[in-house]
Amino acid sequence: MPSSLTLIFMVIFLLESLAAMSQNGFIVVVLGREWVRCRTLPSGDMIVSCLAASRFCLHGMALLSNFMSLFNFCSQVSYLGALWEFINSLTFWLTAWLAAFYCVKISSFSHPIFFWLKWRLSRSVPRLLLGSLIISVVTGISSVSGNIILMQMIASLRSHGNHTLADRIRTFSWHFFLPQDVLAMSIPFLLFLVSTLLLMFSLCWHLRQMRAHRPGPHDPSTQAHTMALKSLTFFLVFYTSYFLSLIITVMKITTLQDQWHWAWEMVTYAGIYLHSSILVLSSPKLRKALKMRLWKAPEKRWFIASININNQYQQTSP
User: Is 65 helix (H, G, I), strand (E, B) or coil?
Assistant: First the structure.
């Protein structure tokens, strides 16, 4: 029976995952409906919608695999882990492309490379999304097939009593596959890191220029740039911690007890959930849809309540 502290962390992780799935599902529904209606979508919204879909699946896989491992469904967890690895790789790449897209579109660098990227990147978004999907599929298949072959070899050697060779093969595979897993996550993370830092540097430089010409702190443009810098700094810290936590988990640097495992999962996925909140609040389209949804909900409840009252009045009237 889990302790009370473990149960608290489990409940928080469950609520966090359900809220994240609802939030990302909302993004997919709003942008997907516009995509179907208009037959097209701006490049930034296209990346955001695909990223929200991958994060919806990522939170679902994390929720399902954690609770199935709690009830010792080991074979199912291994298959879910393979699917989680594919979705996690795709999420890393989509996050990196979103950061690169914002960096190229918003930054005020005057280098010719940035002008070329501004012209090129918007037209290349569908190819980048398809390429990210292909890379994630190849990464997931190679990792899963390698693990299956490895486990079959180790099981065969142990069945013949050759435990020493089986342990050596396990150690060799650990040193062989580990750099591949780390590299698969490091490349998109470095792209995200460079793009985010360049964008923050450009925003800081532009903010200093605006304050030099318009020193008022309540200028709308200055406030917008300040809020953008705060949100970028916030997400940079949380996404870096998410990347480092995955590296620690993959390399098995430390072994957590059950109660701290759930706390670790709760903190790990909190950054992704909060970044999705930032995406919703920073997009005028999503913010407007959210306001309409929140505004319609009380009206709908009031309309249903009024119908019920009228029905009760008609039933009681002579």
Answer: helix
- Asked if residue 267 lies in contact with residue 274, where contact means CB atoms within 8 angstroms, the answer is no
Phi and psi at residue 234, to the nearest 5°: -60, -50
Q: What is the pLDDT along the chain (318 residues), one digit of tens a residue?
A: 567 777 888 888 889 889 999 999 999 999 988 888 888 888 888 999 999 999 999 988 888 877 777 766 555 555 666 788 888 889 999 999 988 888 888 777 777 777 777 778 878 889 999 999 999 888 877 777 666 666 666 666 666 666 666 566 666 665 566 677 778 788 999 998 998 888 888 878 877 777 666 555 555 656 666 666 777 777 788 788 888 877 777 666 555 555 677 777 888 788 788 888 888 887 888 888 888 876 665 544 544 444 444 444 344 444
Tokens of 198: 């360049």
CA pair distance 172, 175, nearest whole angstrom: 5
CA distances from 87 to 81, 93, 130, 235 (A): 10, 10, 14, 20
Instruction: Enter the DSSP assignment of 39.
Output: S
Task: With H, G, I as helix, E, B as strand and everything else as coil, classify residue 108.
Answer: coil
Closest CA to 104 of 93, 92, 117, 94: 117
The token duo for 66 is 């954690």
